[in-house]
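REQUEST ID: PR-0412
SUBMITTED BY: lab tech R.K.
PRIORITY: routine
TASK: structure prediction, single protein chain
INPUT:
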Amino acid sequence: MTCVRILVPAAGRFMLAPLLGFFLLQPLLTQSAHGQMRFTYNKGQSVEPAYEGWMPNNDGSFTMYFGYMNPNWEEHLDIPVGPANAFEPGGPDQGQPTHFYPRRNPFLFTIKIPKDFGEKELTWTITSNGRTKKVYASLKSDYQIDKQVMSTEIGGDGGSLRDELRYNVPPELEIQGDTQRTIRVGEPLQLVLLAGDPDNLPARRDRKPQPRHAGTPPVDGDSKEGLIEGEGSVKVGETVATASYASGQAKPPEKHPTPRPAASQAPAATGSSASTQAAPAGRGGPLPGYTPPSSVVVADGPGLWATWTVYRGKASNVIFSPDPFKAWMDSRAWANSAWSPPYVIPDPPKDGKWVYTATFKEPGNYTLRAVACDGSLFTFQNMTVTVTP
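STATUS: complete
OUTPUT:
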């Protein structure tokens, strides 16, 4: 810092004071600090409903995708369907969760919209911790998504933007046994998941084998890029569960695709829509007005994993064993999550079966959700459990 001489009467001498420069710069420093300030909360914040976007269906209808953001890192919230957790129009219950895990939970459920929906809107309202939040869902073109967008929104394949992810086949998932169970309080309920990744895309970074189909043992093999069977045709996975994200018609690859962002300039995936745009490769640097991402964002390690969550009912009343892999985006280090550094995906079971037990502490009706993810897309299937005293 440049020293500035200022006249200060002090025993007839001049004092050397470098403070003037600091005071001149202080407003700028304070403004910069406030602009970069980030707050995190363990509890007390309200849940934000999220409209993720829509996809067209082959029959002319549309599928809307919803999730939520719970800003709290520790607080789970239980909000029954009703005035505090409702959709309009069409009735309050549209298959939304009533148990809200911490942080970002994207693409959690879908609503099928008729072809004549036009310019109407759906509204999802959530009231929690004394505050009411709403989200408005429409078929505006800006909200149309594809499987690559879905992958990007969860930081899929380590935040990759490669075109092959547009044609990714979602994982297969099957609950072994009945999906409606009755059990007594304190009695263990065995839960068996069968899961597989038909195209092995995205492949595990360590190239370890993983099941290709539900109920089969892991097999070796590299990913099949693109899944293109013929010119203009793309193999798209079938819906295999209550809310599998294979819905929507994939478009064939463009003969002259739009240039993709350079790897060093690509915007990182976030839990919400990206706010910056990368410059196309080969254009001589960033576009005018381009602002690089200003913070580190979550990424999802590639590879098949499967787990259980509580979708409806009080999760604190349910004890899973072993401790299930987290399906919510916990990005803290070593947090038993695909979004958690160092992004270690558990090895799949040798027989292709994920076996858990659930024990319930209180009677009531619960909805458990089986989750499978290939590191880019999710597949879900629900099980209802009636717990008696």
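NOTES: Residues 304 and 374 are 4 Å apart (CA to CA).
REVIEWED BY: pending
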